[in-house]
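Fold it.
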Amino acid sequence: MLEQLELRHFKCFEKLDLPLAPLTLLSGPNASGKSSVLQALVLLHQTIREHEWSIRLMLNGGSVQLGTVLDVVDKVHGRRQFEVGLVEGASTIRWTFHGNRDEMSMTTERVQLDGVDFANPPALQHLLPPKQYDSASSFAMRLRDLTYVTAERVGPREIYVLEDRQAARVVGPRGEHTLSVLYRVGTERIRDSFICADVLPTGLKQIEARMGEFFPGCRLDVQLVPQANAVTLGIRTSDDTDFHRPVHVGFGITQVLPIVVTAVAAREQDILLIENPEVHLHPAGQARMGTFLAEVAASGTQVIVETHSDHVLNGIRRAVKAGTLPSEQALLHFFRPRGSELDQVVSPKLDSDGRIDVWPEGFFDQFDKDMNHFAGWDE
């Protein structure tokens, strides 16, 4: 499991040492750096996945498009380079990337592996020195296979293209490969640590059961399109109705489905990065999403989630209080916009009852602020 992310001169961060846990929640105002944390990991993933032997970090690809070096280097203190470090147990890997301002990729200037420097490496495999690859391959494989689900997920479709598992091992940033993954794992047994009791342990039945926790009665019908690499998706939310086309059911169903498919299909030690899982969900569904993500983390899959929803936070708190996830395995980070006299990141702590020790200004306190405007109305 990744235990810490270190950033130097990356986007809005001059220096960031961010602890990570099985479940890490990122919150804060817009443009405060939450997405930048995820993007740093996605850049590594994108390069490793798409360019196995590259010695350059690709800023634009199938997962994320960040523009040029000018767009990703800290404009206040950076000088055409930034660093990314990852800590896992006793192992640490740090990369230093360098490039000209208008370039769309950056050369790997240095790799530091457990304190040993490899400057200007002439060759890399998965961004690691080939001769050192075996000792750090678990890092590289988890980065290669991580799942990144953005807030901009695809909506209902009439037909969904099927792709080979090599091209679509995960659901994709916009959930565009969700049906490919669902179809592939439909008859496969999922990991024992995440099986719903009293339901067949196969992918489709487990996905239906998990979707039913958000949308009671949800059933899925996946049908091959004859003579085409495509499927249709039928959805119903009651045993008393027929299956409907996705466009005729609540939009939230197609927004939650990529997250549920990702969670069910994941393996232990996989890494899931999820932006705004609350999109198009009723508050009760948002709270359920929080407890659901806690259950995913408790099953051995690492989850880093960015959210603006206090309901998601409270769902996590409820899961901690219920004993689903130990409090020390859930970390909360609140980001503030750069330029504040206060710390850029503050990390409130959860206790075993789900209580939070401090509530920084702006940390999910808008409801209380709004209610203060109505004080005295009933007097």
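The chain has two domains: 4-146+270-372, 160-254.
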